[in-house]
Design brief:
Elements: E1 2-6, H1 10-22, E2 26-30, H2 33-42, E3 47-51, H3 59-68, E4 75-80, H4 84-93, E5 97-101, H5 105-119, E6 126-129, E7 132-135, E8 140-143, E9 146-148, H6 152-163, E10 168-169, H7 171-178, H8 189-201, E11 210-213, E12 217-220
Parallel strand pairs: 1-2, 1-3, 3-4, 4-5
Antiparallel strand pairs: 6-7, 7-8, 8-9, 10-12, 11-12
Length: 229
């Protein structure tokens, strides 16, 4: 997942980036609202985290402009404790949720996971695709009830494809949404991750878990069950 972080406090900005990096999320950082607007217009993010008290362009104006330009990715606003008017204004401008500073890293992670799920139509942390269970809260995978160990990159690749189940996702889209800007886009690393997922989750191809659409990308073929969508 690629996440935009717009926060003028250096220490907090770095803290958020560190948390995202620990979960192998790609992130772009902006220190003011004007830079945040440029990035928000330029790239198709999976989520944006925006502080409301920004220099050059305040957070509410930034959110409003992004929504007016039909940028529909989820937005989580950061607000000062007790500033309920700011929370209301941020939500009315088009934000999807808010988090009061200071916050615990686990709470930020939970809010991010919830917004990403809801944006893809999943109401609960546990997504069920037949024999495959994806718990986005615990970041755990089970196949036929048995735990499957995945690396962070493998997990994020699987979740992105699962959240876009039935759609063909290009290699370029996977690269842009999952990996840092310095990722070698000409490498075969994406193919390696896809190959590992097939080997760990569908070694005999009986599930037809992930298919390659020649010249187009990859498609996650399992259908989500009603309870997880």
């Amino acid at each position: 997942m690629r996440i935009l972080v717009v926060e003028d406090e250096l220490a907090l900005r770095e803290q958020i980036q560190s948390l995202l990096s620990a979960d192998q999320y790609a992130s772009d950082l902006a220190a003011d609202g004007r830079e945040g607007l440029f990035l928000g217009q330029e790239y198709d993010y999976d989520l944006a985290i925006i502080d409301l008290g920004l220099p050059l362009l305040d957070g509410v104006s930034l959110i409003r402009q992004l929504r007016e330009e039909r940028r529909h990715y989820p937005i989580l606003v950061l607000t000062a404790r007790g500033a309920w008017q700011d929370k209301v204004e941020g939500l009315e401008a088009g934000a999807d949720d808010y988090l009061t500073k200071p916050f615990h890293p686990a709470e930020l992670r939970a809010r991010i996971n919830a917004l990403l799920r809801r944006a893809s139509g999943h109401a609960t942390p546990v997504m069920q695709f037949g024999p495959l269970t994806i718990d986005t809260s615990a970041r755990r995978i089970r196949l036929n009830g048995e735990a499957v160990e995945l690396t962070s990159y493998e997990y994020n690749t699987l979740v992105y494809l699962a959240l876009n189940a039935g759609k063909t996702v290009s290699k370029t889209e996977l690269t842009e949404h999952l990996y840092a800007q310095d990722f070698d886009r000409d490498s075969n690393v994406i193919e390696v991750f896809i190959g590992r997922l097939r080997k760990k989750l569908d070694p005999d191809s009986s599930l037809n878990l992930i298919s390659t659409q020649r010249g187009m990308g990859y498609r996650f073929n399992l259908v989500p069950e009603d309870g997880s969508h």
